[in-house]
Specification:
single chain, alpha/beta, Rossmann fold, two-stranded antiparallel sheet, 9 strands
Length: 242
């Protein structure tokens, strides 16, 4: 028994730990949700991680992103995450991509190499592309819906996209998945009504948009729930037949 993962092995067993060690997971988006996904996967003994994000750490990330500290401001998020993973699980192989994932950059990635794909990005076009590429490759995928402007971490649920309600992002994704003939998609979402942010806006590419508010305890929970689903799906965990 590997002492580092011995407490996890007591729950799942040695065969499951070997399966995790031989698995490769891609996490798109290393922010408030995705950073916690990566953290939990590394601490669970995943053997290889591909982490994809073109952003750098900013002061405004410190309130919620596990990789964001005063000492990491200005660094690429994937570089910080890789260094952190190496300190947690040195045997984990980490491939980093300083890439803004969109249809135009999707050909950089061979989805057939992954055992699981996590969509933790904000851009609808990018989310759709991740999901469609994973589906085409026959690889399990889980998608994070909206976590901004919310304050109730207990409101998150794991559901099929077609069983979701309330969440505006989930509504958009339901429509887009239906248009593309996608029969099912596992998501983590919240029925909590989003708050209206208190007046902060930004100018981006000629558009004026509201900056979503966030906190330390909502996106982190979404990320940990996603990581748990990935782990349990990879090992085929069945609580009743444990």
């Amino acid at each position: 028994m590997n002492e580092q993962f011995s407490r996890t092995e007591l729950i799942f067993g040695s065969e499951a730990m070997n399966k995790l060690a031989s698995s490769r997971v891609a996490v798109f988006g290393i922010g408030g949700v995705g950073g916690h996904v990566v953290e939990a996967l590394a601490r669970s003994g995943i053997g290889a991680l591909d982490i994809i994000d073109n952003d750098t750490v900013a002061l405004s990330n410190i309130n919620r992103q596990i990789i964001a500290t005063r000492s990491t401001v200005g660094e690429y998020k994937v570089d910080v995450a890789k260094r952190r993973i190496a300190d947690i699980s040195p045997d984990c192989k980490v491939n980093t991509y300083r890439t803004f994932f969109m249809p135009e950059t999707a050909d950089q990635f061979d989805f057939s190499q992954y055992d699981y794909v996590v969509d933790a990005i904000d851009t609808v076009t990018g989310k759709i592309e991740i999901i469609m590429r994973a589906k085409a490759a026959g690889v399990p995928v889980i998608s994070s819906m909206g976590a901004g402007n919310k304050v109730d971490p207990t409101a998150f649920e794991v559901a099929d996209i077609y069983k979701t309600s309330v969440c505006p992002l989930a509504r958009v994704m339901r429509r887009e998945m239906k248009k593309r003939g996608v029969k099912s998609l596992k998501v983590v979402y919240s029925k909590e009504e989003a708050l209206t942010p208190l007046g902060t806006t930004s100018e981006e590419k000629g558009f004026r948009r509201s900056i979503p508010g966030s906190n330390a305890f909502v996106p982190s929970v979404a990320g940990l729930i996603i990581a748990g689903e990935v782990i349990k799906d990879i090992i085929g965990f069945d609580r009743k037949n444990r």
